[in-house]
């Protein structure tokens, strides 16, 4: 009898199994992606309660659409597309409330109990980027999606993703360190966002 462990099921296999009624498959998907999807929303929303709420909405949307799932792309890309759609809807509702109902469009920035000064410093710098550039940067540096996945998710040409990511990295470096000399080389090493934060002992 072989002691070689079996390979874990792929995300795509699990989603197909769930679409056919396997609750165990969904439980494994939830285990793998609950924290990544919460992190996705938490980096884009100031209020952790909203991030938790939208995380739950994302998995509910996954449940509702399971019967229509087709593995045309990586499951991870599919799930982040669901999350992006829910985030866009949340932002539209917030903008509507702010414009027509006089309610705040978004929650205030986290207090010092929720985030440190250096984390907020980075958060504010990221918020100043062009919206598409910012989304590409976050998807690459934090969600760690490939260029091809980002291109598919945002429906952009691959070369556009590469060039806008480069631009976002340069802009963010200038925001974080205005005194830094401009980079003249055509290439630049990837900006390790988590490492930048953890050098100060904190994460965004």
Shape: globular
Radius of gyration: 19 Å
Separation of the first and last Cα atoms: 48 Å
Q: In CATH, what is the homologous superfamily of the largest domain?
A: RNA polymerase sigma factor, region 2, helix turn helix motif
Biggest sheet record: none
Helix and strand content put the structural class at: mainly alpha
Number of domains: 2
Task: Please trace the helix and strand order, writing H or E for each element.
Answer: HHHHHHHHH
Total number of β-strand segments?
0
- Proportion of residues in helical segments: 55-70%
DSSP helix count?
Answer: 9
Uncertain regions spanning at least 5 consecutive residues: 106-114, 183-204
**Beta-strand content estimate:** under 5%
User: If you average the pLDDT, what whole number results?
Assistant: 80
Mind telling me the CATH class of the largest domain? Mainly Alpha
Topology-level CATH name of the largest domain: Rna Polymerase Sigma Factor, Chain: A
Which CATH architecture of the largest domain is right?
A: Orthogonal Bundle
């Amino acid at each position: 009898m072989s002691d070689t462990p079996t390979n874990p099921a792929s995300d795509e296999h699990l989603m197909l199994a769930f679409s056919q009624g396997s609750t165990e498959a969904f439980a494994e998907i939830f285990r793998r992606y609950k924290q990544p999807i919460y992190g996705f929303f938490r980096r884009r929303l100031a209020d952790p309660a909203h991030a938790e709420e939208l995380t739950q909405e994302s998995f509910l949307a996954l449940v509702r659409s399971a019967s229509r799932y087709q593995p045309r792309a990586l499951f991870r890309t599919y799930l982040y597309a669901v999350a992006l759609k829910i985030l866009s809807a949340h932002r539209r509702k917030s903008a509507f409330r702010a414009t027509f109902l006089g309610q705040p469009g978004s929650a205030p920035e986290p207090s010092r109990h929720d985030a440190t000064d250096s984390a907020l410093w980075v958060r504010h710098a990221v918020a100043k980027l062009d919206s598409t550039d910012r989304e590409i940067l976050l998807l690459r540096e934090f969600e760690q999606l490939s260029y091809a996945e980002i291109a598919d998710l945002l429906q952009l040409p691959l070369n556009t993703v590469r060039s806008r990511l480069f631009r976002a990295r340069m802009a963010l470096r200038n925001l974080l360190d205005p005194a830094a000399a401009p980079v003249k080389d055509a290439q630049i090493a990837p900006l390790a966002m988590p490492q930048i934060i953890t050098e100060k002992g904190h994460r965004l």
